[in-house]
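Why do we care about 3D structure at all? Because function follows from shape, and shape follows, mostly, from sequence. That is the central idea of this module. The next example makes it concrete: a single protein chain, its amino acid sequence, and then its structure expressed as tokens.
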Amino acid sequence: MFLLLIGTTAARAQAPAPTTVSGRVADGKDQSPLIGANVLLIRLPDSVRTGTAADAEGRFQFDNVAPGRYVLDASFVGYQKLSQAVAVNGTPVQLGLLGLQTGGVQLKGVVVTGQAAQSIQKGDTTQFNARAFKTNPDANAQDLITKMPGVTVGTDGKVQAQGEAVQRVLVDGKEFFGNDPDAVLRNLPAEMVDKVEVFDQRSEQSRFSGFDDGNTTKTINIVTKVEFRNGTFGRVLAGAGTERYKASGNVNTFKGNQRISVLAQSNNVNEQNFGTDDLLGVVGNSNQGGGGRGGRGGGNGGNAGDFLVNQSGGITRTNAVGLNYSNSWNKKTDMSASYFFNRATNTLLSNTQRQYVLPQQANTTYSQNNNQNSLNTNQRFNMRLEHKIDSATSVLFRPRFSYQQNEAATNIGGVTRRSGEEQSRITSNYGSNNVGLNTGGDLLLRHRFAKPGRTASLNIGGSYSQRDGNNALRTVDTGSALNSLNQSSTLNQNGGNISGNLSLTEALTRSDILQGNYTINYAPNSSEKYTYDLLTGDTRQLNQGLSNVFDNYYLTQSGGLTYRHNGPKYQASVGVSGQYAELFSDAQYPRPSIGRYTFVNVLPNANVNYRFTRQKNLRFNYRTSTSPPNVNQLQAVVNNSNPLQLTIGNPTLRQEFQHSGNLRYSASSPEVASNFFALLSGSFTQDPISNRTLVAARDTTVVPEGAPAVRLPAGGQLTQPTNLSQEYTLRSLVSYGRPITAIKTNVNLSANANFTQRPGIVNGGLNYARTPSFGAGLTLSSNISPNLDFTASTTSSQNFVRNTLQARLNTNYFAQVTRFRLGWIFGPGINLQTDLVHQAYSGLSAGFNQQYVLWNASLGKKVFPGQRGEIRVYAFDLLGQNRAIQRNVTEAYYEDVQTTILQRYLMLMFTYNIRSGNVVAPAEPTDGARGERGSGRPDGGGRRGGGSQ
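And the structure:
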């Protein structure tokens, strides 16, 4: 008996431990991922089943699989089921690519009743079931996702998921309209959405090698219903009122892998763009304050943020068109391309009240009225071409091109006061005409060797940009001759970069892998600006102090190693890179100088992804990076487009070094259809490029760092970028969502707390601008019936402005936005829609503390067979209270800005839905038309009715 006990114990000690089984389900011809494919692992001989669904990359994984014999079934609608024997002996089983062949699996009339699970958590991917969120028949994808926990859409239409801006939206795992989330969400009908997946998409190299390098993009993948993958759908709209008009249309033709879409719009109701990239034109910039309303570095513009048109301000007339094409030409070649054209005319009136934080000038303020008119034209083209040379080698080519032109005229009236007494006053007229060209691309070569885990990737990229422009400035003022100017200038800037990255991976064991990489990047830039003082007649004189000829380059080389371990419940990696950087500058005007700086850095990184269960996931990421000053921040030349708000560059700037980390926890409970998400993130920047600001008490001459002397009028502001220290941010967010079955409503609760510290030098004193804030939100969205669709939400935030230099100027302000949106089909084809928004502000400058209600409403009647058409009367801002108010906080001041905005109008609109092929028009729904089927689908439709979660 003793020997038998010893033998049994020894046998148990040597028994293999539970492990993982993973693989990837794809189309057998072109190897594109079959998103949502059903995967079953059946244990022999007792036939116990465990099920899962393939993610956006077609990948799946089973955890805690006991040793033994299994059969794995993979299926998808329209494909033949694949069965494969699997033997598990205690080590991770990697099945590789499972290619399914078309044909064989057909939809059967299976209906699973009961409550649809809102979401499930698959690793670090949160998957929402669209059938669990009821919307009106005419809703688009953006209307749908606003009902989903952790997904929000701001007043500017920009989408955030899990506290981060969504940078990419995929359709069935493939790019659609390039990197343009808005174009996808606003032009896909909600009725075609089956599932919505939110995840951090890894880089192209990472997805190929299987090695997570930490380079991710917040992505939403829309999985379409099968019946919408072949056919034509779209919508055309035309509307007109006494002063306002609106016309738009979109047509989408889907035929298997071939997808063609055309978009167009023309309006003067501030529907400005299909996506953010259309705003990145070269616009006339009045440089209203050092750094551009709290932006980084007080250079002369040139950052993308300087070119953004404020979507909530002014009145914009827009004409735009967009084209998108994607197809799998054969089993080896995939291609997608998009083209956009946008032409927008904007009229913007704004009023600014600014309070400076000055050590000796206790109550210095600046008031400004701004009137700007601009015409902005943009064209851009993007393409993605991927070819599989063989089963182990592929090439990816991604070219891009954009052309932008802007004409702007700005009139500024500014007054600086000290303790209520006027110091200086100015009126300036600034006109500009700029043209910008940007082109580039990258080529990615990838090869997978015969040995599992051994891969090689080579990425070669390049870009070129050019900006040409001219402007004219004329000013008048009272009190100082320094402000009287009559000038013109010409500008020519050229830049680009050439880069290369080599990445190698090697599997050390089944669960351990090593990656080595080498990166080189060379980025040259040049800028020539000539400013002339206009004298009598046609005579002009070169102003050397406001002119510059400047060249620079930034060269970086880095190499490193990263080790990754894959366990049954977790994946962890740790790595380090060494970086050598060289920053060179050569200035001829306004003062000859040569600068050369070298930097040597060690860049560590770490990632941990831990799965407690299939529905609970914890992810930690830590990265370090460097960022050089841009060409405008380095130029020691004054930008005087607003002579009371001067900016100048700094040729002695150094690169920034940033540490950033985030911790995310996601969990879902299919039993109660709940979803929980928590985020804690932070960053710390060494040598941050901040601002040195001087507000003159009298007419004076200032000598900025590394620059020639500058004459500054009384009350004038001069801002220069400079390296400081102790800049950091902290962010936290929690959200929880679940349905309340008693009232057929989904509830989502959220809370956030944030803290930012930014250093700055103000009139020689070091100031730390600290902005703690916390907020909470509540959203209730109906799940009663497609006939009755409402969403009620409220978000509140308490903000604090704290300055170490002038504590008595510390302020608090509160903002609250409450919204109610209703869609009600209450008769035969009669549809009432209303949108009510209440905004409240307190703690702002005098005259800015306001409460107002924006109420929009419409009444429509469906017409034509199949209810394809609709006639609608629409009213915007019924109460005539619409306003736009914004508070900006920098290290030198805080300010409140109010801009003109669209006011009340009425419009008669006609809408026609285009449907053909397998796609039908949105019929008037019954209570069971949407959402009662639950998440059950037949084989291959994603999640099986009987599969485990």
